[in-house]
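Team,

Forwarding the record for the chain on the shared tracking sheet. I've put the sequence and predicted structure together so nobody has to dig through attachments.
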Amino acid sequence: MDIFLGFGLITILYAGFLLHIFSGIAKLRTFTPKHTTPTTGFSIVIPIRNEAKNLPALLHSIANLKYPPELFEVIIIDDFSEDQSERIYLNWRLIHSQFDTTFLENVRRTGSPKKDAISRALPILKHPWVITTDGDCILPENWLQTYHDYIQETNCAMVAGPVILKTKINWFHDFQQLENLALQGTTMGSFGNGQGFMCNGANFAYTKSFFLDLGGFDGLQQYAGGDDVLLLQKALQQQPQKVGYLKSAAATVATRAIDDLFEVLQQRIRWAAKSTGYSNTYAKGLAVVVLCMNLCWVTAVILAFNHQLQWPMVWSMWAVKYAVDFLVMYRTNVLLRNGQFFLPVASSVVYPLFSSVTGIGALFGGFRWKGRAYRR
């Protein structure tokens, strides 16, 4: 009976959180670009390591940006790549000399390569706005224009934007897309409810002056990640009125899905490890409830196979979780992808185990990323 009540309570809490997020997505205003005359200057900062495979697509999308070249620069900070990333950049630079671009080697001062890379770029910025992305991303052509319009209308000093996955037609990529929709939905819903706590460094902007006013990455250096989420939470603690979320398909950055299961696990552990540095109470509560829900589902299945729990209880938990997950993912898919949406039963059954492994790994272990080992 105690197990039954415990599982039931966790399921109710989970459903409550997800329904709250679903309502927040609807509250968050969808921004329509006005295409006003560009005046905002941007410094696109891109930390990379071993991105030779992905860099051509990113550079091609930069060349296709519909924004005056004199109003943006590109700063690529290479974290000791062991591939042909620099050569690819130099070849592109020869053809696209009209763009103001800089390629720097990272200077490692902490255990966080991305924070070091951004800190490396800050002293040489030529424009007031920093806008970060990753080496495996593809930028929409109206990316900077949409940010400019949003900044002019809202007067924000920090703006988070959406990210979708560029996938192939296979189950593993679809699985990652579903997970990303859940993350993006949670991000939008939390902002819509006035409880924002998540963002993605693949699509994140702030003014240099605001960054310095916050104290930069001071107090965050002990975390291997968090150049995005933890900085956002720091801003929301100090000056929440200056932080916004740009809910617009025109500003949505695409990043590539990963083909290797081990690499996906390591990436997710890296992401989950950031949660140990959360300062937002709502974020901590949601992270705990989500982990508990997934652990409860896995435990319930094991108990049912051992005849210690009846299967109707297990499937009731799954049905509630499936329903609220579907609502959040479907709504997010409509807003960001405008494509067909299907939540396979197999994915919804497997995901709790996947999430439990990454959650436990983040709490008690480290991870490997780009050929390096990290402790949280």
